[in-house]
Amino acid sequence: MKPSIRVRTPREIRSARRPRRHRCWGHLVAAPLWPMHDANLGTLLRTCDAVGACLAVPSFSWVDAALARGNTLREPTCVHRVGSPLHWLAAERKAGSAILGVELADEAVRLADLPAARRRTVMVLGHEATGIPPEALDLLDGAVEIPMAGTGSSLNVAVAGSLVLYKLAGLL
């Protein structure tokens, strides 16, 4: 028996998407504020575009080149430059944003139980080797953990961030 799966055309896919109101969507922000590998930034940039999120990055000298290499999109993407991660997170929290860290913590919510974001939410990602710095943990409203069955203790930052962004966007 022949499968009855029909692949949608690129035009059909584009017409089914939500229209963009403006360049900065603002509802979701991925914040890999302590990156170690530049390839992760390009991957997160693509995920941000896919789910309608912005990307907040530190102003390290190599970040712009990493984003340029990773940005294979035709449309401009929403990228915010952050001078001081701690000051920026504090300002976001004071402005009413929910600050959610992707971190292994006793109080962390399992990814499967994470509800979609209902207000502006900043998803904080830590350093690939050391996680979110202790002084930034105090600025979090909560944490989300991605359960793993294997022997590793964590996923690649871009993979973890992408999973959580899709869940926060209500697309999973």
UniProtKB/TrEMBL annotation:
Pfam families associated with the record: SpoU_methylase
GO molecular function annotations of the record: methyltransferase activity
Gene3D superfamilies: 3.40.1280.10
Domain of life of the native organism: Bacteria
GO biological process: methylation
Ranges of residues in domain tRNA/rRNA methyltransferase SpoU type: 36-166
InterPro entries tied to this protein: Alpha/beta_knot_MTases, rRNA_Methyltransferase, SpoU_MeTrfase, tRNA_m1G_MTases_N
Keyword field: Methyltransferase, Transferase
Name used for this protein in its record: TrmH family RNA methyltransferase
Native source species: Actinoplanes subglobosus
